[in-house]
């Protein structure tokens, strides 16, 4: 499966090469990980549900900041704000909240500060970026399950 896109940011068309590469790599990694068989149960890790049917930015997920890219504005911002995604679901991480952690900005404050410092308007691309971030997190979590099944500490 090959996926391509064009990203519109700050009024300019940017090549989607970063996301094209990432989508193709992560899809390949996910397909390989889905073939791993748990030695204890004999069950395969399985494919990510509906991987071949994703057409809209509707995936919701969260994982830490292990994969920050340092350089791609949208990807970096979506990784930075991923913990705030819990505000959109019934379960909330009670320790990650501006009312509990002194100095922790709100989600909108975080996005506003990033917008100010980076000098670009992220709003038009936030749904895409958030959906991609969740997809990438899903592949990472699938990899954790695969490594756990193989009793292997690293994906290397």
How does this model look, in words?
The chain has 156 residues and is mainly α. It has helices at 17-33, 73-80, 107-118, 126-149; strands at residues 6-9, 12-15. The chain has a two-stranded antiparallel ribbon. A hairpin with a 2-residue loop joins strand 1 (6-9) and strand 2 (12-15). Helix 1 runs parallel beside helix 4 and helix 2 crosses helix 4. The longest helix is centred in the C-terminal third of the chain and has 24 residues, at 126-149. The two termini are 24 Å apart. 19% of the residues are buried. The model is unreliable at 1-14 and 59-65 (pLDDT under 50).
Strand and helix map with partners:
Elements: E1 6-9, E2 12-15, H1 17-33, H2 73-80, H3 107-118, H4 126-149
Antiparallel strand pairs: 1-2
Helix pairs in contact: 1-4, 2-4
């Amino acid at each position: 499966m090959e996926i391509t896109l064009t990203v519109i940011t700050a009024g300019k068309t940017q090549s989607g090469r970063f996301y094209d590469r990432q989508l193709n790599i992560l899809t390949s990694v996910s397909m390989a990980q889905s073939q791993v068989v748990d030695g204890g149960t004999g069950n395969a890790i399985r494919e990510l549900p509906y991987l071949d049917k994703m057409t809209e930015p509707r995936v919701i997920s969260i994982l830490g900041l292990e994969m920050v890219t340092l350089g791609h504005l949208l990807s970096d911002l979506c990784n930075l704000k991923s913990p705030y995604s819990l505000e959109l679901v019934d379960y909330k991480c009670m320790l990650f909240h501006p009312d509990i952690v002194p100095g922790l900005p709100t989600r909108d404050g975080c996005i506003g500060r990033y917008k100010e410092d980076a000098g670009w308007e992220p709003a038009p691309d936030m749904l895409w970026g958030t959906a991609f971030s969740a997809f990438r997190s899903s592949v990472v979590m699938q990899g954790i399950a695969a490594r756990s099944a193989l009793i292997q500490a690293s994906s290397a």
